[in-house]
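Predict both folds.
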Amino acid sequence: MKIAVVKETAPGERRVALVPEMVPRLHKAGLEVTVETGAGDGAWFADSAYTEAGAAIASRGELLSGTDLLVTVTKPDEALVSGLKPGQAVLGMLNPLADPGYAAALADRGVTAISMDTLPRTLPRAQPMDALTSQANVAGYKAALVAATAFGRFFPLLITAAGTARPARVLILGTGVAGLQAIGTARRLGAVVSAYDVRPQTRGEVESLGASFIELSSVGPAAGEGGYARALTDSEREAQQAELTGHVARHDVVITTAQVPGRKPPELLTAAAVAAMPAGSVVVDMGAGPLGGNVAGSVAEQSTVTQNGVTIIGAGNLAATVPAAASSAFARNVSALLLHLAADGALAIDPADEIQAGVVITHDGRVVHPATAALLGGGSTGGARQ
């Protein structure tokens, strides 16, 4: 099987889907690797490093010819998709639940689409392939650094001859992988950290990192499937927002991490909550994206300052700002999934396999992923676009 690694074209995207370290591992499984010229430049992986590892280097036009599988981090752009032929495949974070029409377009071209962000994450054998977790880990780390950089005071307690500086009070909303990493990083920087999640079972993880867990009396447990929180009802969300406002006002920095696959992120901080924060406070919204964010007034990939002097940073793609580490982690996930999908050096699609049932979105001209098919009007596996 011939694999082509694409140079990312999305604005601000510096990651690369495979790093040189993974090339020999794939070669041993009978997979040939070709890398687009300059694909690794944003993460400081030179073309020469790929050739030394055994990969070939080619232009984009040369990539498409004879390639069986394109590997990418984010969705390939329209120009690349238009060059794909029936029988070819594409693997990456395709986000089909947020953009099912994109999946339908790939199906219409006869392209097999494999999306890493629909991986069934609760399966133990799928964990080495879990790109959502690996990228959230990187993003949570960077969120704390972004907050510390924007905050006009120290994070740690400092006692000097000129006086004492109290530690920053940091609140993390959402204690999944990103939230826990943000907690750990903020703690290592010396901040006093609190955290909240609608899943009370995360209290132990929060406290093990040295943070305090906030309980809200207005909202009961809201654990959902697959480790995610369930969507709150309107009345629950309003009560949550109102009670959170009081906690938010007592913190210097707030980092929000709540995301729902394929749906608009929940708004955790209302305009009233932001207005209640003191001047100089910082909010980092990791949920910010095309569908909205966790914070009223946040704009994806932008920093804004409110009238009362609160800096709101829309930071939905922080992993791309730590490109070397994020790419290395992503490449390990990709390699694990490729080795699972390959049999005798070829792509072997098996709908009965639990992992493939989760990640294979289109095949043989159809949208075969149940949740994506349902969004397009088909209700079952194998349901084509209607």
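Second protein follows, with its predicted structure tokens after the sequence.
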Amino acid sequence: MDLRGCYHKVRKLTEQICSPLQTEDYVVQPVADVSPPKWHLGHTSWFFETFILKPYFMDYREFDPEYNFVFNSYYETVGRRVIRTDRGNLSRPTVADIYRYREYIDEAIEKFLCEEPAKEIKELLILGLNHEQQHQELLYTDIKYILGHNPLFPAYSRDYVSPEKAGNGGRFIEIKEGIYEIGHNGEGFCFDNELARHKVYLQSFEIAANLVTNREYLEFIDAGGYQDFRHWHAEGWDWVNRNRVTAPLYWHNINDAWHNYTYAGLQPVNWGDTLCHVSYFEASAYASWKGLRLPTEFEWETAANRFDWGLRWEWTESAYLPYPGFVKAPGAIGEYNGKFMVNQQVLRGASEVTSPGHSRITYRNFFQTHLQWQFTGIRLAR
């Protein structure tokens, strides 16, 4: 692997994602789950500084010792940090400061990679690149939330084109009962939550070859799905009523016509498009209304070679838990996934804003059940 080439390619893409933004856009944090774009830019640089340069690059001088407090996300091992909800209050460091920080880190990594790093350091670098790719997707989704909750609905880019829906109709794929292997296998990078590979027994089932569309979901809305408690988990029903949820995130009923916010601004809903921005609660309620269910993550992975995937992160019926034989790495890196294996639901697949080369069938994404801001959709099973 050409580490230097991969490093520069990944780092450049992060800045390209931010290039349509105005300076004011970099600082906004409308809700706790959304981080300001400038924080993402700083945090991904901090990762390389903290886990590569400071411990392994002789005579490296920290850019600013206070940045550890500002850009540490959740690593208790590394020290104190700004509370997540306060990231939007950081008017300093400035956007210009953070771009200088990125340049400083990139120059240091360039010098560091003049010599071939040891195997364990190379693995950390590859983890850092995958970490930045995760934040590239978060940048896209956070930017959409920031601009999509501005009352002017400003466009991120008029040139952005969403992928077209792959039409397979209502076809279902049958999977025979049996014992199947789950988890990452072979060469190449994976996160620790994809290990260890293990066997599961599955009853025979069928899984939809196609994702749910906007038109199909509109039928649920028009049938009073958001007002019918029978299809909702108790916690989901509380969430719907407490937050007065009546549609997917970014949908707006204007003069009896549905519109949704897109990267190109507010547009009429394209009914043939793949449904997006629904919570697990909504996905589960829709499946119940259809007399169907969501697939488990093991069913999804077993069937994944048989259909196109990648448009949406697909909610599954599986709680985010460790696989048999899962082992957390020592130190701060061990905090990457393991400590989040509670009160979250697994999503599989990828999305239209997943970075190139970052998706694979064994990838396990995870979010809380009420969240809509990711590119989340629905695939049904029975």
